[in-house]
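explain this:

___
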Amino acid sequence: MHYRLILRWGTWLCYSEWRPDQPHEDWSGSLSAHGGNLYNPRQLLYHGCWGAQHRVAVELPAPEWRSPLLEFERPVYGYKGLEGLRIDVEGDAETRLSFRSRMLDADFRLGDIPSGDRLVYAAGPKYSCAQLVICRVEDEGIYWNAERFAASGARDGRRRLALGLPDMQGTFLPRELHHRESAWIPPGAEVSMPFLWEPDSAAVVTWRFTAAPWVPLSESATGENVRACNSPFVKLLTALDGEPLSHAELKAKYMRGAFSALEHVDELGPAGRPGPRTLAIRNMSEDGVYLVLHGATIEAPPPHWPTTRTHLPFRAEWFDGTRPARDTAADVPSGGKGLILGFDTNMMAAENGWIDAAVRYMAATAAGNYVLFRTESDRVFPSDWRRMFTACRENGIYFAVNVGTTSAIPEPGGPAFTLTDLLALAAELGGDRFVGMKHHELSLPLYAGRRGVDWPASRTVAEAEQAYLDEVRAAYRTGDESVPRLLGEAMLAHRYAYKAGVDLILSETMTGNTSLLLAEARGAARAYARDFWGLHIACHVNTSPEDFRHERMYWMNLALGYLSGASLIEDEEGGLAKVHSFVSGPSDPLPAERQASTARFFRWAAEHPRPSFPEVDIGLLYGRHEAITGGMSLNPQRPVRVWEGFGPAAPEWEYGRPERGWLLADVFLPGVWLCPVLRDASTLRRWFAGTPHGQVDVVPIEADAACLAAYRFLLMPGWHTMQEADMETLAAWVNEGGTLVLGLAQLQVSDDRTTVIRDGAVRFPPAAAVERLCGLGIDGLEPAEAGTEVALNRRRFCLTHDEDGTPTLANVTLGAASKALLHAGDRPLLVEHRLGKGRVYTWATSDYFGHGGLLPLVRAWLDDIAGSLDSSVRLTGGGGEVAYFVYPEGDGKRVYLVNTDWTVAGNIKHCTVHAGATSVDVDVEEGVVAEVEIL
């Protein structure tokens, strides 16, 4: 037998060009066969920025290869380290193949490769996403094929049939597009496909295709600008047994290096006679546009087909025949309650009418209540906007307009139509369903720099912050100033957006660390009195090839976001279609699963309203003028710097000891991803963390006393420019019972990062202020002696580090209410100060916690103190992979638990919830929110 196989290996991480925390993976190796023959080996190199949509095949003399990454300085923009092999094999089911590489050895039989699916071997640490994937060429993407249709039929008893390239007859050219070999039908040509179906049964046919010129106007493999190629229209005619069925004209939207998937549905009545039938499709397009036919699927009409067909021009699986009674007034979020949930529409061309259809269908099936209009490069005319805005209002669907990537285009020959006109039209026609105007990723210069743009560098971190605030404010000066300002935020910069006047922020998860991003989103929202905030789930290509793990991650975003307090949640580029890895249409398996998952969660949230904000006892104080990307690093030449596009190109502004102090967040969010802050890759978790000590917020230092009152424990891990007002606020908070942890580095008052880092030029507040807050006096600074050790819990920690040397310690005098808990030699290193009802723990060193000689010691001490925090509800077990949320409810509490391990479907974590004298054992299954009621 002949097999053509794809072996695909490595790691793909979208949104992280410079990946110092992802080591070079040396997949150099070979493939051999036992009981069969190998021929035509070709090494595959995958490339693209947002997803592995493109690849190059290089002929090999033998099935042996060397990882090309070893030949390049990292990073190579647009190439993330994903490689593969395409090879022909002659053999049978017992033929054994041996894959050998420095990353992984694997032995398998040809019979082990599942038909219609993939064989997967994990490589590297649990959450590294490195893997070897083996499949037949036709099964590389997640698409409908004969095997998947048969499996679906076995589940629900409905007959299905998949027709593909081998079934096609007529005039076409087989050619690969986005990893899928399809029939390229030239203008005027026709393709037919014979099939067998019960003569007395009706059927639904879904044509699956796209449109493309033979040679795109631009194939930019690195930049992949969304405007790099025109979006073509395709015209088609369909027929059954020579009789016309239907015609259509659809636009294949070109976006980020790919043409969007299109679908067209025909209904077939009973034939009335036995024997084969023939479907045909003709390309009636002009201007050299090819109809790229992937195939067609035929199925018995699904349940509730009349409802589906009434609303949608394409197939959808999310409607199960029920529409729960819902109080739609509760959709409007207030005080953290209510939920607006739906889809980004940028994968659909407005001209096709699919967006209007999705709006109507969501309303008809209670499957969501929101859409984001983000047209990218599409030319959308005022008449289209009127139609779509009206559809939203009439169907009770909320909507926002992404102004950063939406153009205001006048009607041909009509009057001028500006962005201000567009927003006024949205407000007029949308009424209370119009949420506002949205920008996206205005913080891009903070984690990607300004490529090819000269920008005046700031001298201090205060100036850098001000420059960034000015840029954010300027972005909203277009359009009507009265329109609510929304922002999609991908890094830990929510506080600055609120400070600049943004009304509603949606955290862009699955880019950096989701749990850390949610912590900053909630902390900033509380500090700036925003009880309405949201989530933008950018489930990009986080493993490759894309598979159902992404849908598990998507559900996890929904659960963690909602339970964290998000009240507006939108999916990006995955629910209505996909483009980032394998181009998929709305009824392909992955988008269909996301649609169903969204509908299920929307209904679950309606049945589980949040009575209040969740309890959060722990806060990580976000210092004045501090900026942490939290996993984002898009500069292709080097790691990003602090304040990147707004700061100087100086070594002192590179991520260093102040930023490495944020690794202490690992105590509360295990495995937290802080790239470009480095950590042991084997301990890194993408893209979620459990909360073993309860929920944690990243709290901006400008938070007032009323905001701080909600927290019991605050840690200052990184950079801070201290002001006396901060010290007064913190002292008052501690006096009421809070516990504060900081070092002398967080007391320094300078905003000149260059001199602080380069020269150690540290200036402290007035002695009286230091004495009041920390209970100590500072009598000078001098380095610790080399080799100095500190004892903690029968362990000894050496303060001398190979790269960082020895930390600088303070000579301190202790106040009456203070005592030294740890010493470095004869000098106090950790001082406890009792202040009113609370305590302040001060590390008596001017070095930041990120100093290599301090970090392990401080981390070990924090582990101890975190375990003794006085919380109303505690959790044991779960391995640090269970996030739990405590909601006050009447006289009791309701505890929700989420298993954040997405690697294996349905895995279970065993843990125990403790509340006073009550303890409840809980098994937390992946994909299911566990619930415990405490009276």
Remarks:
- The chain has five domains: 2-139, 146-311, 337-607, 721-867, 874-934.
- Residues 366 and 734 are 48 Å apart (CA to CA).
- The chain is about 20% helix and 30% strand.
- The longest helix spans residues 589-607.
